[in-house]
Amino acid sequence: LAHLVIAASVGYLSTLLLGILGVVEPATLRKAASVGLPHVGALIKQHGVTSGVNEGVMIFFCNLMVALLIVATVYWVRLLNPHNQSRKCARFREHLHHDRSAVHLRKIPPFAHIQSSQLRLASSMLLGAPYIATITLGAIAGHLIGIVHVVSSSPLVALAYVMPHGIPEISGMLLACSVPVGTWMSIRPAVDKESTSAAFLRIDRVLASRQFQRKMKMIVNLLMIAGLIEAFFTLKVVAIFSGG
């Protein structure tokens, strides 16, 4: 949450500063907002609406896809288990072992003391994916708030454009990020003891737990609520604060 707030603040303040100083035109800022994930999401949503699919449903599935990719990190890490005899798992482990980027993990303090290559890669994936996701989400949210603030000259309109659906949406994304981080915290004692088998056994227990199932249900519900609010209520709230 702290990383998300910092990233959002940096994205918002930098966008606002560029707009106020006149360094970048508002039209250019809007184009910048369409680069990357928002652009992909807009294309998927537009294609769905053209095909007759409800906009709220498309927003829900776009958000759910991102959340599931974050949660899927735990399943990818599970494939690193050296005791798994599946050919696909063996190929996956072999590919990661030959990946040159994995060598650089030894230079990063949190992973430098881990001797097992499987545990080192598992730890980096479980911690890396959520932090990248939260920083990216925060930067995009802050950038969008800054653009609306520059265009409308009203911080209330900027917040109204994001906050109604942003609260359940960000909550759902943070909950998805908590799954890999929580999994790493559960295997940390085994990682410190260099017990590869115990670490992967704990991962299996996490995926089979009721807590994991409850989190998945909460993620789906939160993102569904966010999609419906964004499709049917956000623009109405914006119209109220902007005077129509």
Q: What's the quick description here?
A:
The chain has helices spanning 2-21, 26-33, 37-50, 55-78, 87-97, 109-112, 117-152, 155-192, 196-208, 210-232, 234-242.
Task: Describe this entry's structure for a reader.
This protein starts with a helix and ends with a helix. The protein is built from eleven helices and no strands. Helix 3 crosses helix 4, helix 4 (55-78) packs parallel to helix 8 (155-192) and helix 8 packs across helix 9 (196-208). With 244 residues, it is an all-alpha fold. The mean pLDDT is 83.
Rg calc: 21 Å
**Amount of helix:** over 70%
What fraction of residues sit in β-strands?
under 5%
Average pLDDT, all residues? 83
Number of helices: 11
Outline: elongated
Largest sheet data: none
Number of strands: 0
* Order of helix and strand elements from N to C terminus: HHHHHHHHHHH
Distance between the termini: 33 Å
Can you give keywords for this protein?
244 residues, mainly alpha
Write the layout of secondary structure elements.
Blueprint: H1 2-21, H2 26-33, H3 37-50, H4 55-78, H5 87-97, H6 109-112, H7 117-152, H8 155-192, H9 196-208, H10 210-232, H11 234-242
